[in-house]
Amino acid sequence: MTVTQQAPAVEIDKVAVRFRGKKREVLALEDVTVDVRPGEFVSIVGPSGCGKSTLLKLVSGLLKPSAGAVRLLGGSVDGPRHDVGFVFQRAALLEWRTARRNILLQAEMRGMPEREAAQRAGELIEMTGLTGFEDALPHELSGGMQQRVALCRALLHRPPVLLMDEPFGALDALTREQMNVELHRIWRETGTTVLLVTHSIAEAVYLSNRVVVMTPRPGTIAEVIDVDLADERDYAATMSLPGFATATGRVRELLGAAGGHE
Amino acid sequence: MVETAVRTAARPVARERLVALAERSWRPFALLAAGYAIWWAVTQFGLVAAYKLPSPGATFQAIWNEVGYFAHHTWVTTFETLLGFAVALVLGVLAAVVMVTSAEIEKTLYPLLLFAQVVPKVAIAPLFVVWLGFGLTPRVVVAVLIAFFPVVVSMVTGLKSVDPEMLQLASTMGASKVKTFVKIRFPASLPHLFSGLKVAVTLAVTGAVVGEFVGGNEGLGSVILQANGNLDTPMLFAGLVVLSLLGVVLFVAVEFAEQLLMPWHASRRGETVTVTY
């Protein structure tokens, strides 16, 4: 697929999603338009049930919009897309496979050449600090380690777009900060376009070029906030920068106005 | 419990394993020994007439006297059981796979399966003799019929209990249905399947014996039937003992296969030993 540098990596164009409930239809998303440039890191924050996760499913083609269009890397999305990497809140690892073999599942499913896949897995294991845990089974790993395995698996095929659905939501605060720092570094190293759904305002601002703030159901876009921070970000230093305070303040204000944020 | 407190990450060495095995199994053995002692005492002191309840000594003597005879009939019953179990396993897994691939097929098949399950197999076993003669076939068929249901039910549950996120992930990986089945769905359903197989293997023994009751003159079922007819209670009890042993051995064999195939699952179960058994 040929993609010009100018074309957005992800285009969500006036999308609406209706779910057919038992008694009535539920409008989950309404008139959502977002463009994500190649290599950009965009976070989506919003109250619970505002359709943030639904948005990721639309981009990956796991779900079809009721109205509007979704394009990924210039091509319209009309079925599950194979050129994305997906990370869920739960690591969703196969408990009978070691860390390494869980990562290599991606390669096996795609029929990637074995040697190339093994080499790539080795690189990612090193990059995410999993060295020494390659042969551990999931239940022998901590939550943070499991999520690292899931991240490696999502990155194995060098996807141009990485979709993350509250990937650190189940981790303790300290591990979460560590994972944020590592994700930032990995994003810088790989240059992958990232679309991250999160509940953490600090996480969203620290990691992103732009933060999309959504309203409660039906989910619409309240505002898209440009984060005025350098690309290279030290965690502790970033926390005390005025640009960080401005952005988090604005997001908090919007979510407060939207109501229902916990 | 004690085991969890001292659980270490390293693999236990052989001696530790043996100690652990002894720790786990001394209670059932103690219970078994107590039962045996009561049996012995009751017959020894003449509390029950010998023709109603033979002494343990007489029972084992009966086996010892006819070792060749028992060996032959045990082999026959074992063969019928294993064949029945194997056929039930293959058919059950296939039926489950077909049922989870289509809701329509499941809706069509499930009531039929349930109906086949509620028909008392003991009652229709004589019919199989009429249809299939006095040979091996009707006995194996009864074993298959009895063992089939738990296999299907457990496998369907297993195939349906796969993490939906895992399946979504597979579709973003561009995995074919076959690959998804082989690498995710099937292995994920094994723990469920094996809990069904443990029930199925003991039921297969019952099925084979029921088959032997109604037709043929081979197998432990017919040994018991003949002994009963002759009022030869030591022989009858001998048959029961051997039959019970057969059931236990087959059950343990299935458990062993489970641990061999799913060490990951067995080790997890070890950790949750404090919750329930």
Task: Give a verbal description of the structure.
The complex is a heterodimer of chains A (262) and B (277). In chain A, the strands form two sheets. In chain A, strands 6-7-8-3-9-10 form a six-stranded mixed β-sheet, sandwiched between helices. Chain A has helices at 52-60, 99-110, 114-127, 143-155, 173-190, 201-207, 235-239, 242-258, and strands at 10-20, 25-36, 41-45, 67-72, 75-76, 84-87, 161-165, 193-197, 210-214, 221-226. Chain A has two domains: 10-83 and 159-258, P-loop containing nucleotide triphosphate hydrolases (Rossmann fold); 94-158, no CATH class. By secondary structure, chain A is α/β, with parallel strands linked by helices. The radius of gyration of chain A is 18 Å and the shape is globular. Helices cover 36% and strands 23% of the residues of chain A. The longest helix of chain A has 18 residues, at 173-190. Chain B is an all-alpha fold and 277 residues long. In chain B, 82% of the residues lie in helices and 0% in strands. In chain B, helix 9 runs parallel beside helix 10, helix 10 packs antiparallel against helix 11 (233-261) and helix 11 (233-261) packs across helix 12 (263-271). Chains A and B meet through strand 6 and helix 2 of A and helix 8, helix 9 and helix 12 of B.
Properties at a glance:
heterodimer; A: 262 residues; six-stranded mixed β-sheet; 8 helices; globular; B: 277 residues; mainly alpha; MetI-like fold; 2 domains; 12 helices; disordered N terminus; disordered C terminus; ATP binding (chain A); AAA+_ATPase (chain A); P-loop_NTPase (chain A)
